[in-house]
Amino acid sequence: MMMEKLKVYADRMSQPSRAVLIFCRLNGIGFVEIKVDISKGHHLSSEFTEVNPLQKVPAIVHGSFNLSESHAILVYLNSAFPGIADHWYPSDIFRRAKINSVMDWHHSNLRNGAVSYVINTVLGPATGRTLNPKTAAEAEKVLFSSLSNLEDIWLYGDGRFLLGGSQPSIADLSMVCELMQLEVLDEKDRSRILSPYKKVLQWIDDTRASTNPHFEEVHNILYRAKKKFEQQCSRIAETQTKPSDKIGGHSKM
Amino acid sequence: MMMEKLKVYADRMSQPSRAVLIFCRLNGIGFVEIKVDISKGHHLSSEFTEVNPLQKVPAIVHGSFNLSESHAILVYLNSAFPGIADHWYPSDIFRRAKINSVMDWHHSNLRNGAVSYVINTVLGPATGRTLNPKTAAEAEKVLFSSLSNLEDIWLYGDGRFLLGGSQPSIADLSMVCELMQLEVLDEKDRSRILSPYKKVLQWIDDTRASTNPHFEEVHNILYRAKKKFEQQCSRIAETQTKPSDKIGGHSKM
């Protein structure tokens, strides 16, 4: 069956969007990137709603087939495109099952903690939302517990990647992209969160190195956003008459 | 390879545990059920921690292989045991991709909303935890939005099951088991939440009917728990001197 070129609907500020884009580039999958700028509400447009009624990125259209949810997309791309190296999503049922397991775990743990923490410390005010310090504190707990589980359970054995792997899988790509969003935090805060987890830090570096130059190119938008947030924070700090705590300081609550 | 009989570590009060147990029974998979009573802290025992270092149910041991996360387990069982009907996890890559997509969506939506709502309205006091009415209100929003998405997006077409299916998949089983936990709510509250969603209600009935008698047998524990919570609530109501709102009424906050 001859199909139209794959379309990837993505906002590079979204970590699962970045994972899908990097995966396609790494594996020589021909695709068209269609930008869906969430900050401008493009995900709510009728055009995108036809692609994904759930109005979330990433989403793909492949011929007459459309699909959302980054993990499902990564798994689909592995079956739909020939010649993708086995380490990305091993055909061995035991290794594949373990990769499915860590990707399922990801949703309610690392993803849940990281997204909620970043929204309630930095991204909230940058996108006009109020911050909730109590939610940030709860998210921090989930984030720390997830990082501990990564360090002590998922990054086992001698391999550099999850589940003792010697080469990255789609789980490594998905979860390292998730952690990269911590880049937008204040540098001190990011270091406070990540520095206790030496294996996690090494794993981020290893995944980045093994997926470059695509990894850095697709993450460039995040480094630019980081600078913008830093400038906003220093402007807010200048206009404040008294110091306030970092988490609650810019809250409108 | 000859393997030891499958061991399923489960607490029937856990909805993903129930999904795995029902799936095994439906498909004639020989297994031993090992009860892990969460209310008694058995998931924290050193014996269970060896099976699943994450200390969560369900988990399986199959020969020397162990696995956690219910969706990963259901997918694994489909590959590891011969003769399971294709509708549970279709081999067609497009249908399989859609089932992966709805199961990925489930984590941060239906599961997130339902679990948090039930814990912060009923299960909290029953397990000695304080209730958080604000969290309950946020969970209710997620739950309603998830039910709307099920009704309007995932339950499309003429089929009785998710994604237009004419027979149930592992996604139907997982998500209906999730919704069944609403049984422990006050009957009025359960009806308030579910009654606007006619297709969802029909889908729950259809999934139940097509997986009986196993569905009802494995859910019996939930119906007994419902009765216990009702008795507890009426005892609390008798000892209270003034009426209080349903959500915040029994909170220790």
From TrEMBL, chains A, B:
Gene3D superfamilies: 1.20.1050.10, Glutaredoxin (3.40.30.10)
Domain annotation GST C-terminal: ranges: 92-229
Positions in coiled-coil regions: none
Zinc is among the record's keywords: no
Domain GST N-terminal: 4-85
Keyword set, alphabetical order: Detoxification, Transferase
Signal peptide: none
GO terms under biological process: toxin catabolic process
Transport is among the record's keywords: no
Catalytic activity: RX + glutathione = an S-substituted glutathione + a halide anion + H(+)
E.C. numbers: 2.5.1.18
Family affiliation: Belongs to the GST superfamily. Theta family.
Protein name (Swiss-Prot/TrEMBL): glutathione transferase
